[in-house]
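As promised in the previous annual report, we have extended the structural survey to additional targets. Below is the entry for Acyltransferase.
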Amino acid sequence: MIETNLFIAPAAYLLAIITSALLLRAVPKIARHLQHSGESRFASIDGLRGYLAFGVFVHHSIITWIFLRTGVIDFPPSNFYSQLGQGSVALFFMITGFLFWSRLLSQGRGHDWLAFAVSRLFRLYPLYLPLMVLVFVSVFHLQGWELKESGWRLLSQIFGWLTFDRPDVNQYHRTGMLIANVTWTLTYEVFFYLALPLAAMVFIYRGNWLQVLLCLIGIYALYQIIGWEHSLKKHFLASFLGGIGAAYWVRRPQLVTWAQTRLATIVALAALTITFTAFSRAFSLIPLLLLSLFFVIVASGNTLFGALKPRSIRWLGEISYSTYLLHGFVIWMLVQRLPPVLHLDGRDPWTFLPLMAVCACLLILISSVTFLYIEKPGMTAGKRVLQWLRQKGKDQKTLAEKASHQG
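The corresponding structure token record, generated without further manual editing, is:
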């Protein structure tokens, strides 16, 4: 059975890596980007991202196969394929916690919160907005462009999607399935971003007791406000703690030195293997502890016997947001919508597997294009907006000073 065949995942990864390697050879712009980005301080994490995002694609491909056969949306019966989704997301949350808490620890009160806010907006939305438009257009196309909702109801659905919720659009059942419902993780990321200044005040800046109390109340209020619509789960949020713990770990040279040893590599791979084989869910205490142990070793610069170093893997890491965000729509188009058009049965393994292989290669191609022409320009635009805001602030300050002198 496909849902328990462990050879499918390595084959899919191999196709993705080969596609990435061919792109590096064929498209000089990609090679130049990697060259200019250079060796990141956290290069091993950059490589890990590529494996994680593509793992979620494999996870959702198996879920789609089960859905086509049974009509039921459920986790795969294989712990491995279940953890390719859940474990990968938990590690993504750890990466977020690690990178931003590390920055706070390094910069302290000098942390640029305006730059943080602008960069997050221009990181999440430039790719998400076109995908959202694609979802709405697809739904209305399937419904013959018939408006089934009131204008206000449609506006509320648009607002829901803009805030990473996935309400059914124009009464199209399970609209979120068009993108494999991946945006639920962005809600957790946004909560982390919004809570970060308050958490910094409590744990890093350490104001007086009243400030600490108000910040804790603020974090709780954020949790309630965002959770009101999206049902935030505490055990999912606990994943960020693994990354925050790693931010302290890498500041201890003796721990980093050990984490780069051969023994540490074996420990990391053992922790990952146990998680992916012995547990069906990632968001409980023991799997999260094992994944955190794996992560702190990788965050210390361990490349897992070189598995995180190749340029092809680094490129998969660069395009990981595109891969994560777009893979559901690619699966939906090629595996669910295309077979009936071609008079094929997607429930036949010899139809499904070639389509999944095409999806794997096409996903890397599409993600490379969207990174180069949507994500990267979006990040550049964010830097320009930040410069404009700072210049505007300076101009207003200058005008205020002139006015005070004249007064």
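The chain has 16 helices and no strands. The chain has one domain: 2-401. These points will be discussed at the next consortium meeting with the crystallography subgroup.
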